[in-house]
Amino acid sequence: MKDEKEMNASAEKSNEELEATLDKTEEYAEEELHDELEKLAETFRNELNKAKEQGAVKIGEVAVVDENNNVIPQEELCECCGERRKDLSVSENYQYCSECRERMKRYPISLVSAFIAIVVIVIALAGVGGFITDFSGYNSARLAKNADSENKKFSAVEHYDEAIAYFDEKDVVAKKLYKDSALAVFDTLPSGVASFNEVAERIETSVTEFEAKLPIYKSYKDLRDKALIMYNTFTAFYTTLNNVEYGTFDETDKETITKIYNDIGALADKEVTIKSMTGGDDETVTYDKAGVLFSQFMFAYTYGDFDKAYEAISALWENYPEYIQMFGYEFAVIEIQSGNHKNALKIAEAVKENNAEDSSPYVIYAYSERMKGNYDKAIKYTDEGIDLDSQNPDLYRQKAIALMLKKDFEGAKKELEAALGISEYGVLYYTYLIVATEANDTETVEKINTVLENAGLKNPEKIQNYLDGKLTYKEIFMEGTGDIE
User: pLDDT confidence of 128, banded at 50, 70, 90?
Assistant: First the structure.
């Protein structure tokens, strides 16, 4: 484009020429004047036609020229500035000149546009963050419900806890999650007796005193009360055991054992006071009968009165099958040791049905197959159980026994080392003692004896008979109870 000075000079020159032409009109004859005007019109038409042919302007538009004073066609002008040719070296369809292109590299958007963009992004991220939080919470709740429906109770509890973390504990959604998670804990008892107290605490956390009075929350209150009563039942059992009037007793003191067993049973008719959820007076209730029976079983089995132990646990199975998670494994073991393999497997199936992620049924399956002489099948079950739960030492122990019976002593030692890496208790060490003895591993035998001596553990009768040469390892693990105890 011509600069302003040049354009002004051109305009002044045109005016002068026009004035000179008009001044001459007085001297021209009419015909000469007509000829002169025709020449000017012709010149104007020629210039206009030339511009049109070049496509530079339309009527009413200002022509744009390049540095060589050539008119730039409209379609070749930069879409940004409208003053320079498009830089077609970038691409044949490029819409901007080289100068605008460089400017856009340095400042791709204006400061105002940038600020607006940042505000929009922040708002969007906040919205997405809120959505993700809610979605994550509901997604965890969905996973929990799916796991629960498949009886994968351990996973259900884990997902419930993940979901609860996303909601306020008084939120309606959280209340339902607390209730469902409490039920899953009640069904699995992950922390033993302490699990009952955990169930009560989960519900008390989410339900207020006022809500506990409403019919809609009655199931919450009932579950809380049931768990709390059971917890108090076991507390009363431990208190009974510590009664000083019993003094010191052992397995030979049958009279004292019978008295304590009966005193525990008497708890079923006694009352206990628990705090009301509704804020009213404390509630007086009787101890949980299932809890009393299980307490009797534990006491009698521990002190060698197996008839009373079997009587108590059989009553549990018959009258309170909903507590299968509490007593199922122990009952199945007793049934195998009594030779009742069919009932043992039935009980194991009930435990598995209650919680598909419980690996203890696989211990029972392996135990039963091993007693039948099916060592490879027993190992297969232990491997399946380990795949489900690699932290169950009894699975490694059962596999070690099966391997030992196949005379694979090194393999058996390896499995017992894995078991002791998870937990350490007497029966694992005694089993390892037998395996190490059969493998002629005197160094390991000495180490185990040192551990047992330091722990003050007395050899069970079968172990002592084995060490004295009165029993073989095959007789211990294939006859009678098929185990050390």
Answer: very low
| Phi-psi label, residue 111: left if phi above 0, alpha if psi -120 to 50, beta otherwise | alpha
Tell me the C-alpha distance between 361 and 381, whole Å. Answer: 9
Give residue for tokens 């190490």: 436
pLDDT category, 2, cuts 50, 70, 90? very low
Q: For the residues of 26-77, what is the DSSP string, one character each?
A: TTS-HHHHHHHHHHHHHHHHHHHHHHHHTT---TTPPP-B-TTSPBPPGGGB
DSSP state of 282: P
Comparing CA positions, the residue from 31, 77, 36, 37 lying closest to residue 54 is 77
CB-based contact 462:484 (threshold 8 Å):
yes
Structure confidence by residue, pLDDT tens digits, 377-436: 999 999 999 999 999 999 999 999 999 999 999 999 999 999 999 999 899 999 999 999
List pLDDT tens digits, range 12-53: 555 555 455 445 444 445 555 556 556 655 655 565 555 455
User: Shortest CA distance to 388 belongs to which of 155, 124, 208?
Assistant: 155
Neighbour count for residue 404 (Cβ, 10 Å): 24
Round to whole Å and give the CA distance between 420 and 397.
Answer: 9
pLDDT of residue 58: 47
Element (H or E) spanning 11, and its range? helix 4-24
Residue-level pLDDT at 438 = 96
Exposure string over 159-189, b if 16+ CB within 10 A, otherwise e:
bbbbbbebbeeeeebbbbbbbbbbbbbbbbb
How many Å apart are CA 457 and CA 400, to the nearest integer?
A: 22
What is the spatial distance between Cα 220 and Cα 204, in angstroms, rounded to a whole number? Answer: 9
Tell me the sheet residues that pair with 71: 65
Q: Which helix (H) or strand (E) holds 345?
A: helix 341-354
The closest of 265, 260, 267 to 229, measured between CA atoms, is: 267
> Tokens 């299932």 — which residue?
290
The 10s digit of each residue's pLDDT in 93-109 is 777 787 776 666 555 55
CB 361 within 8 Å of CB 370: no
Q: CB-hemisphere CA count at 13 Å for 47?
A: 8
**Please, are residues 203 and 181 in contact by the beta-carbon 8 Å criterion?**
no
Q: Is the pLDDT of residue 367 over 60?
A: yes
Is a pLDDT exceeding 60 seen at residue 373? yes
Answer yes or no: are the C-beta atoms of 399 and 366 closer than 8 Å.
yes
Taking the model in full, what pTM does it have? Answer: 0.70
Question: What tokens were used for 112?
Answer: 């105002």
Sign of the dihedral through C-alpha 334, 339, 343, 348 = positive
CB 448 within 8 A of CB 432: yes
Between CA 317 and CA 170 the distance in angstroms is 38
Element (H, E) at 12: helix 4-24
